[in-house]
Amino acid sequence: MCEVIEGYRAEAKAEVSIELLKEKISIEMIAHATKLTVEQVKEIGKKNALI
Description:
The protein contains three helices and no strands. By secondary structure, it is mainly α.
């Protein structure tokens, strides 16, 4: 059950990151707000052609 919840959390953080990248919020600010690393945010941005 915990794995399922963690999966949803990761997906939600990625979705929030995508929306914030679209709004041109800085990668560092997104990382801070979502508790992701800068590298994770960059990877999400690259996968979605936002960086």
